Structure formats: C-alpha cells, structure tokens
C-alpha cells in the first residue's frame, strides 16, 4: 500500500510588503514623540494628523495624533501596534503641526502639552476604568472566599449578558459606598475580575426631532378623508392644522419632505404634546432625526457693508493696503472710538472675496459677544465663533467647520489660534496690547498675539494689529521699520475725546466728604448724568465685597489654608474665598482666635461698590460685570445686552469693562482706585496702568457726545496721569522705552522666568539655589536674577521660588540658552531629593 500526497504549490512570498511605523503625539508632557507599529492591513488607512488609539504603559489606553509615518523602527524599545484608527482624514492639518512644533520649541514645553491645549476635549477620547469577570473565574473552584460586597459584584456581572462590565461609578452605586477601591483590589488579587479601559468618543452631533406628513395623506382626496376621520378629535385636528399652516404641501411637496421641528407643533398654548405623539403613533405624521448646527448663525449675509467709512477711515484703510504691499505686519494705532472695527470688517470682506480665510482675535469673551451680532449681519453663516464658554461639542463643531470650509472667518479669543486653518489670508489681533492674550497656566504658556504672527508667517497671510495703546514692544517694531504703522487720530463721527478730571481722595478724606468710596465730585457727576438719562461705567480692579476681614480686638485676619493670601469676603454668597485656589468657607460670626464678634470688612471690591450704589442711588439700575457674575455661559451677553438697551444705568466692573466695549449712551466713566494699579512690583506696571486708564476712559463719549472721566487718586501728581489726560501715547512711549533700554528689559532683551514649586518650603529654596548655580555656570551671573520668593509665595500648597533670566534677542543665542536651561532643569530634577519639585518655564512673561 502506497501513500500519496497532493503537493500544494506554496504562495510566492511578497517582496514588496512594507512595515510602517507612526510617530504619535501623546497628550502627555513627554519630551519625545513615541513610535508605534502600523498593522499591515491598515497601512493604507494611516493619515498624518489623524487620531489613533494606542496603549501607553501597562494599562493606559488613549488617543493621540499621528505626526509622521516612516519605515524606521525605534532602537530603544519594541514598538507596540496601534490598536485602532479613529479618523480616515486629518483632524489636525499640516500647517497646524508646523505651528504646534514652533509653540513647543519657543515656549519650552512639549508637543503633548500643546496638543492637550489645542484640541477641544470632545476630540480627545476619554478613558474610563471598567471591571469584568475574569474568563477563568468559575471554570475551577476559586480557593479564595468572597465577602458579601464581593459576592454582590460577581452576581451583578454574572447576571447580565456575556461580557457585561461595570464602571467604577456603577460599582460605587451598587455597593452604596464611596470607598470601593479596596473591594476591587481584593477581587483583582483573587483573579475574579480584571480591569480594562473603555474608550468612548465624547463628541456627538446635535440632533433635532422633526415630523412630516406621511406620504399616504399628501394627495388631496386622502387629506380630506383624514380631516373627516379627525373631526371628533379636535386636539389632533388642531395639531394637523398648525402643521399645514407652516408647510404648504400642495405648493411645495419638497417642504413636506424637509418637515418641521416636532417641538413647534406643541409650542402653542392650546396644543398638546400627547396629540402630536398620537398622530405619530397612528402613522399620520412621521418622526425623523436631523443633525443640525449648534450655532444660530445661519442667516443670509448681506451682500455689502451697511456702513460708510469716514474720510479718515478710508485714508487709513488705503494706507493699510499700501503698507501690506511692503510689509506682512501693520499696526493700526487709533484713538479709542476711532472706528477701527469698521476698517476690520471691510478688510475681512476683501480677504474673503479672494477666497482666503480670516482669523479675528479679541482678548475677552465680553468683546466677542458684542461684536458677533455686527459681524453676523455682514458674514452670516460663513462666520464661526470660538471661545471657552462654548461646550465641547460646540467647539468641535467650529473646528470641523473650519476644516470643511464652512466657516471662512472665525472670531474668537486666544484659543482660536489653534484652529485648523490652512488657507489664511488675514489675521486681525484687536487690542493687541492686552495681557488676556497670554496663557499663564498650564503649559503651553503662550501669547496668542505672537502665535498668530507666526501662524500668519507660516501661511503667507497678512497680520493687522490694532490698539489705542499699543504694547511698547509692538510700537518699537514700527520704529525699527519691521512693522508698518497707520494712525487714526480722531474719533469716528462728531465725538471728541473725553474730558479727564483728577480728584484727590486724600483731601476728601481729610475734609470727611467721602461718601463711602466715592468722592463728592464723582457722586455729583453720577447724579447729573443719571438725571439726563445717560449711563455710567465704574472701574474697580478688584472683585468681591472686600479684600479681607479683620478682628478689631485681636487683629486676626482669615488666611487661605493652601495659599499665602488673605481670604476675600463675598457678601452675595456670605463666604470668604481665595482668588487663587478657589477655597471657600462660611463667613464667621465670631473671631475664632479670641471669640470677639467685632469683625470688620477692610477695603472694597466691585461687589461692595454695587451694594453701596443701590443704597445711595436707589432709583438707578446697577449691574456688576466681573468673574463672579459672568461664570454662566450666556452671562456676558445678558449683561451687555441689558446695558445696551439701557435697562442698566450704572455698570460696575473689573478689567472686563475696559476692553473695547462700545456703548452709545455712556457719558461718564469713574476710575475708583487708580493707585492700586500703578504701584505694582513689575517692570510693566506703568505701561499696564496707562493702557488701562486710557482704555476705560475711551468708553465715555461716543456718537457725538462729549464724555467725562473722573479718576480718584491719592497722588494726583503721578507723572502717568499727565500723559493720560493729554492722551499722549508718544510721550509715554519715549519715557517707557528709555527705562527699558537703561535697565535691560523687553524689547531689548528676552526674559524667561522659571518658577520652582515644592510642597516643602526648604526643598523649594534648595532646588531653586541649585538651579540658579547651574544656570549661572552656563549663562553667566549677569543673565540670571534670583532666586527669590514672589509676593504670593505659596499657592495651592506649593511654595514658590522664581528665577528671572535675561537674554539677547538674537535667535542663535536664544536657542542655545534654552538648551542650557533645559539641561539645568534636568540636572535638578535628577537629584533624588528634588524628584517631586515642579519647574515651569515662562517665556516672555507678562
């Protein structure tokens, strides 16, 4: 007997099979990119700028951005496979990746930190721990007894469908306890359960339920028969009639196919939702879902502007275009109320007509709220709005709208620089001097103005910077010939610059004529303006009711438990609050130190001013605009709308009221405590004070009315007031630039501030001393200042030490110095005793 075998010819070995690797940006503060292997069958699906899911570490599973694709495996470790591809098209564009790399390099942070800040949260996948029965559990007898709580978890997991899992939250609810992690840990040790990460994409589009008439009843005869059927059912008949009034099915059958929102049918008082649902249940109406925009921006845009530029505006407009032919960056220096916004709108329209994209940056959400209405009337549904008060889903919608080309122009605050533009023609940075453009914490600690300039440079776009009080560094660039300069020296229309009056608060206190915190001059002027049906803005650069409370018997002052500051009193909620970490506690009835009830508030904030005004001017409607009153999503819009419609007579606020708001009926501005702004330990203190005084003064006297500004100060002879009164920016600039040159500050030097943080004060000081020594060895003693504790030396339980580094502006010097700084930081962090120290670099601190 012989055996025979069928010989099978082996498949030829493919010689062109390529193994791809992807460098990904993990949303973690890692100094390098991490490399993963692309599954061969997905080689054609990997896209640079797309999101993928990877495993990082033993258990962590997260999404990241593909930065590069190549064929070189990593030498230091075995590359893991990418687990899943989320996108088949980039959500981050190539121009964005180039910009993100520049941000990471310039601001001394990691690409992961940039991605974390740039991407809306809903584009980043959330990872939630879940538990599931171990596959081996129950096959063999478990040698470990289970507690009652453990048994309950196992029964729940067994009782569901195969593969049932529970989130940590569900475990807590099941056991009725908050401390359930020890139970989970015990079950894991007994190999009863295992943990895994459940990834879910948080973004979901907005869905609206709509209804239409079933096709069966569209014919006239069928509809008449339907009316007869519903003759005894008046509620359903009323709903049907309301539908037909809205949808002319005989004139336009397509209108029925599009349908109307279900909510519309039950919105009238005499109609019921149950009648609508009955019609759907009986097949008379059909319900369907439609994905809609979250933005009420789908209005038909006007084909041309609804205003005419004045002669001065037209001249400035032409001058900007002329200078754009020679320079990429132009500064529009116009006095407050000069009409810069109209020039911006005209330039935006021209850029859009050429097919380009436009980014219009504003420093505050309050400004965004006021100007969006004006822009919508011009640009309609082509306009996108982007700021932090939007929900995650709303921000994703704008992000996708820029990617798809739906939004050709975007108005937004500093985070809008991260949007996926790839065809920018024009960038406008309004109020370019504002410190609100600077991100302080966490990293990246970027300045949106500088990022916008670089983004425009990368994409070949023009940048227009606008301000009545330009940053000293910006104006210096115009003097050096690097930026163009266009000036608007007159207000729009017939309005003149306001009259500014200094009032000496020391004299008023000596004469005992102060009315709470108001001088008699300011009170009289407020009463006169209110009598003339005109409006008032009061500026106080401190929120809350009072900065602190004090026991008059023993001197006790309540302090924050985590920060080296006193707690501020907020009367509205009857709480003491820390403005640095958010800690709060109830206002004490008696002194905890000595038991005295003799507690007194000291100083005043916006809340105190609002309270006093309501008592002193009971006929006036007073509103407050600060961080406390604008936390809600639409609070800005409501406060501004009420003031525009003159429902509010007096608006009391912090810096929010100083920034470009335009109210036609405001004829008086009061600056309550000017001295607190001037006397601040910072080289920019005088610049900030000048800018703030001029900007808030500019809110007075619009639309042909002569405004008035009253500045309350204990030192009227301060040199800065003379420059504010004469509106002499050039003289202020010459004085300030001389001081900067003499003492070696920007724009003549670059400044980098390093902050060392540690929960132990001594270790914070020792780490800072070691870091300073390392820096001095590399950069020289003259370049390194410090270390020293800042004025607020403890925040959120961390003790702080600061080191200031001054460097030449030359690119090669700066690049080399940053490498030296990184090396010095690494040396300190490598020391065992300083492992827990945090060291943050702030390039170009404000």
TrEMBL record:
A single Gene Ontology CC term: primosome complex
GO biological process, one term: DNA replication, synthesis of primer
Stretches assigned to the Helicase C-terminal domain: 583-743
Cofactor dependence: Zn(2+)
SUPFAM superfamilies: P-loop containing nucleoside triphosphate hydrolases
GO molecular function, one term: DNA binding
The entry's keywords: ATP-binding, DNA replication, DNA-binding, Helicase, Hydrolase, Isomerase, Metal-binding, Nucleotide-binding, Primosome, Zinc
Cited function: Initiates the restart of stalled replication forks, which reloads the replicative helicase on sites other than the origin of replication. Recognizes and binds to abandoned replication forks and remodels them to uncover a helicase loading site. Promotes assembly of the primosome at these replication forks.
Record text on subunit structure and interactions: Component of the replication restart primosome.
Family: Belongs to the helicase family. PriA subfamily.
Protein name: Replication restart protein PriA
The organism of origin for this protein: Hymenobacter aerilatus
Lineage of the organism: Bacteria, Pseudomonadati, Bacteroidota, Cytophagia, Cytophagales
Gene assigned in the entry: priA
């Amino acid at each position: 007997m012989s055996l025979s075998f069928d010989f099978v010819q082996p498949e030829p070995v493919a010689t062109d099979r390529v193994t791809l690797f992807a460098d990904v940006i993990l949303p973690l503060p890692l100094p390098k990119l991490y490399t993963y292997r692309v599954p061969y069958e997905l080689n054609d699906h990997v896209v640079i700028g797309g999101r993928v899911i990877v495993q990082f570490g033993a258990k962590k599973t997260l999404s990241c951005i593909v930065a590069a694709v190549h064929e070189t495996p990593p030498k230091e470790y075995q590359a893991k496979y990418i687990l899943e591809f989320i996108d088949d098209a980039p959500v981050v564009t190539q121009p964005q990746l180039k910009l993100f790399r520049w941000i990471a390099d310039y601001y001394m942070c990691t690409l992961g930190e940039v991605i974390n800040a740039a991407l809306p949260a809903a584009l980043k996948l959330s990872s939630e721990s879940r538990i599931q029965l171990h596959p081996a559990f129950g096959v063999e007898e478990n040698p470990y007894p289970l507690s009652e709580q453990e048994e309950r978890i196992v029964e729940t997991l067994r009782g569901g469908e195969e593969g049932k899992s529970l989130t940590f939250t569900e475990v807590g609810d099941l056991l009725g306890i908050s401390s359930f992690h020890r139970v989970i840990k015990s079950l894991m040790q007994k190999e009863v359960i295992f943990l895994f990460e459940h990834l879910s994409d948080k973004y979901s589009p907005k869905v609206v339920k709509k209804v239409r008439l079933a096709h069966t009843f569209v014919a006239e005869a069928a509809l008449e028969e339907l009316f007869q059927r519903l003759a005894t059912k008046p509620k359903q008949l009323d709903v049907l009639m309301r539908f037909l009034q809205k949808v002319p099915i005989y004139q336009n059958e397509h209108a029925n196919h599009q349908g109307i929102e279900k909510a519309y049918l039950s919105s009238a008082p005499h109609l019921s939702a149950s009648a609508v649902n009955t019609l759907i249940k009986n097949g008379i109406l059909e319900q369907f879902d439609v994905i809609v925009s979250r933005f009420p921006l789908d209005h038909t845009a006007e084909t041309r502007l609804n205003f005419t530029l004045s002669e001065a505006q037209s001249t400035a407009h032409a001058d900007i275009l002329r200078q754009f032919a020679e320079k990429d960056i132009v500064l529009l220096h116009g006095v407050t109320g000069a009409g810069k916004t109209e020039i911006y709108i005209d330039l935006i329209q021209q850029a859009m007509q050429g097919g380009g994209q436009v980014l219009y940056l504003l420093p505050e959400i309050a400004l965004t709220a006021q100007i969006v209405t004006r822009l919508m009337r011009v640009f309609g549904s082509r306009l996108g709005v982007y700021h932090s008060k939007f929900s995650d889903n709303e921000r994703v919608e704008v992000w996708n709208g820029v990617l798809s080309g739906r939004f050709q122009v975007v108005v937004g605050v500093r985070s809008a620089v991260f949007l996926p533009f790839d065809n920018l023609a024009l960038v406008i940075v309004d109020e370019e001097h504002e410190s609100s453009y600077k991100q302080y914490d966490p990293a990246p600690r970027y300045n949106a103005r500088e990022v916008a300039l670089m983004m425009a440079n990368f994409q070949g776009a023009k940048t227009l910077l606008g301000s009545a009080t330009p940053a000293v560094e910006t104006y210096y660039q115009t003097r050096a010939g690097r930026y163009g300069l266009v000036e608007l020296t007159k207000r729009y229309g017939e309005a003149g610059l306001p009259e500014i009056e200094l009032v000496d608060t020391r004299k008023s206190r000596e004469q005992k004529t102060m009315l709470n915190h108001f001088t008699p001059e300011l009170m009289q002027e407020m009463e006169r303006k209110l009598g003339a049906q005109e409006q008032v803005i009061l500026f106080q650069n401190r929120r809350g009711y009072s900065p602190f409370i004090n026991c008059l018997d023993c001197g006790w002052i309540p302090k924050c438990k985590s920060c080296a500051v006193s707690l501020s009193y907020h009367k509205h909620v009857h709480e003491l609050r820390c403005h640095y970490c958010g800690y709060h506690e109830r206002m004490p009835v008696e002194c905890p130190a000595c038991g005295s009830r003799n507690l007194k508030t000291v100083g005043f904030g916006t809340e105190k001013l609002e309270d006093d005004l309501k008592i002193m001017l009971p006929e006036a409607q007073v509103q407050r605009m600060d961080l406390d009153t604008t936390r809600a999503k639409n609070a800005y819009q409501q406060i501004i709308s009420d003031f525009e419609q003159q429902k509010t007579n007096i608006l009391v606020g912090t810096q929010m009221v100083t920034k470009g708001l335009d109210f036609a009926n405001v004829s008086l501005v009061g600056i309550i405590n000017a001295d607190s702004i001037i006397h601040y330990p910072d080289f920019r203190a005088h610049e900030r004070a000048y800018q703030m005084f001029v900007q808030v003064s500019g809110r007075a006297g619009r639309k042909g009315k002569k405004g008035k500004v009253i500045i309350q100060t204990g030192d009227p002879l301060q040199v800065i007031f003379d420059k504010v009164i004469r509106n002499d920016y050039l003289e202020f600039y010459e004085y300030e630039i001389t001081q900067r040159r003499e003492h070696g500050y920007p724009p003549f030097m670059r400044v980098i501030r390093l902050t060392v943080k540690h929960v132990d004060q001594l270790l914070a000081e020792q780490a800072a001393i070691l870091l300073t020594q390392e820096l001095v060895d590399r950069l020289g003693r003259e370049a390194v200042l410090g270390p020293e504790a800042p004025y607020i030396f403890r925040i959120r339980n961390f003790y702080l030490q600061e080191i200031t580094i001054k460097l030449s502006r030359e690119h090669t010097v700066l690049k080399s110095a940053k490498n030296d700084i990184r090396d010095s930081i690494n040396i300190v962090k490598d020391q065992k005793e300083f492992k827990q120290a945090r060291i943050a670099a702030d390039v170009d601190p404000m």
